[in-house]
Design brief:
The chain is an alpha/beta fold. It has a single domain, classed as TIM Barrel (Alpha-Beta Barrel), CATH 3.20.20. 48% of the residues lie in helices and 14% in strands. α5 links the parallel β4 and β5. The longest helix has 23 residues.
């Protein structure tokens, strides 16, 4: 089965293009509480999308699922509503899936599941060391439909230099063993275009297949709409590059176990080289 590919945008014109080219989920990113403090020094996507963006995208999406990342579980503050109010608003706006980031405790999962109330699908973004330690107890709560392992914040929580170190050192595989025991679909990280990325996308996609992953985020480097603003260029890029990814996935289905073992070794080798360069 092909990976479910997710793309972050709040632009209806880009979402329409992504949908027409076969992107499985459009990803609205409403998370901003505490994000600047965690990632302020990094070149990461800090979108701060809104409920209005969810409403606008709902109007144009009829095949692609609408995924919304809300803020971590929180109470009402001076500048924001409570988690319950936020989740209610996102459900009403038309989300198909709600993603919870930065969870650390079982109590946060209970509140998340309670607030969603079975109205839409739920996805846990596992991206803290505490979540890794508590994942079994978190999933025992029930009500979580999918798990995505967020390599960016998770590698920061372990003091690592490169997010794919978590793939090379077996952390991702260890988490997957626990999650898969619950029969819950899972994915991890993001992928660039084939032939691109500090760690080439081919190696990452092959690791998805080796580990039984079912979903991945198309990274900003796949299509940066801040650099490629013309919609016709965006469409051309999506058409060409998604075909390449799908063709590569078809090739992977024909590979034997030896191929994936060698790719795992090569991936670890490349990751270690990259991490050493970053440390210098």
């Amino acid at each position: 089965m092909s990976l479910k590919l997710m793309y972050i945008t709040n632009r209806p014109d880009v979402a329409i293009v992504a949908q027409s080219c076969g992107v499985d989920r459009i990803f609205v990113d409403m998370e901003y509480i505490g994000k600047e403090e965690r990632q302020g020094g990094l070149d990461t996507v800090k979108s701060h999308h809104t409920v209005e963006d969810v409403k606008n995208l709902r109007k144009v999406l009829n095949k692609t699922e609408l995924l919304v990342r809300v803020n971590p579980i929180h109470e009402e503050g001076e500048s924001w509503c409570s988690s319950k109010e936020e989740i209610d608003a996102v459900v009403e706006a038309g989300a198909d899936i709600i993603m919870l980031p930065m969870a650390k405790t079982v109590d946060e999962i209970r509140k998340f599941v309670e607030y969603v109330g079975g109205r839409v699908k739920t996805m846990l973004l596992l991206e803290t060391a505490e979540a890794r330690e508590n994942i079994k107890e978190m999933l025992d709560v029930g009500g979580i439909d999918m798990v995505h392992i967020g390599l960016n914040d998770l590698h920061l929580s372990y003091g690592m230099k490169f997010m794919f170190q978590l793939l090379a050192d077996g952390t991702v595989e260890d988490i997957i063993k626990t999650v898969s025991a619950y029969g819950i679909p899972y994915g991890f990280g993001g992928i660039a275009r084939l032939g691109f990325g500090m760690l080439p996308a081919e190696h990452v996609i092959a690791e998805h297949y080796r580990l039984g992953s079912t979903m991945a985020i198309l990274s900003r480097s796949f299509c940066d709409v801040y650099k490629t603003k013309d919609v016709s260029e965006v469409k051309s890029l999506f058409e060409q590059e998604l075909i390449k990814i799908r063709e590569y996935e078809t090739e992977l289905t024909k590979k034997d176990n030896g191929f994936f073992i060698e790719n795992q070794k090569e991936t670890a080798r490349l990751v270690n080289i990259i991490a050493e360069k970053i440390q210098k």
